[in-house]
Specification:
The protein is mostly helical. Helices cover about 50% and strands about 10% of the residues. The protein has a two-stranded antiparallel sheet with strand order 1-2. Strands 3-4 form a two-stranded antiparallel ribbon.
Length: about 150
């Protein structure tokens, strides 16, 4: 069962869409000043470094929970189930960022928020137009076939 917000938008966190979640958070944290990050960047960098040193996986776990509603443990279970390979083309991730191999991306249905699997960055980017524009895949197939026939 997929969670959705009271407004009908996909679940973001704690049963709310992104806008409603932020509104609730601001109500609960009235003293927070988001401009402090700009005023005190050294403090925030040091705070982030301390948190990362204290709990290296905590930041990743929080990001996965916030963005996809899964924990790092669930991500690792999916990764093990897929053998560390992309769910779409069954190959390894090849993208490198800052000199390191990137992790497999969490693929989810943008309408329902349901996690479908882990994809390499190329396959994840290739699926975006299919999710966003109905009929894109058929149009792409037709385009490629027309180009192939024109070369013959």
């Amino acid at each position: 069962m997929v969670k959705s917000c009271v407004c009908g938008k996909p679940h973001y966190a704690k049963g709310l869409c992104k806008n409603h979640y932020r509104q609730e958070w601001v109500k609960k944290n009235p003293g927070y000043d988001k401009r402090k990050r700009k005023r005190y960047p050294e403090y925030h960098k040091a705070s982030y470094a301390r948190r990362k040193q204290r709990d290296p996986n905590g930041i990743i776990n929080d990001a996965l929970k916030t963005n996809y509603g899964i924990t790092l443990q669930q991500y690792n279970e999916m990764w093990d189930k897929q053998g560390g390979f992309c769910a779409l083309h069954k190959g390894p991730e090849t993208a490198i960022r800052l000199g390191k191999l990137t992790a497999l991306a969490v693929d989810h249905d943008p309408k329902t928020g349901r996690v479908r699997g882990l994809l390499c960055s190329k396959c994840n980017q290739a699926l975006r137009p299919i999710d966003e524009y109905p009929g894109w895949l058929e149009a792409a197939k037709e385009y490629v076939n027309v180009e192939l026939n024109a070369q013959i």
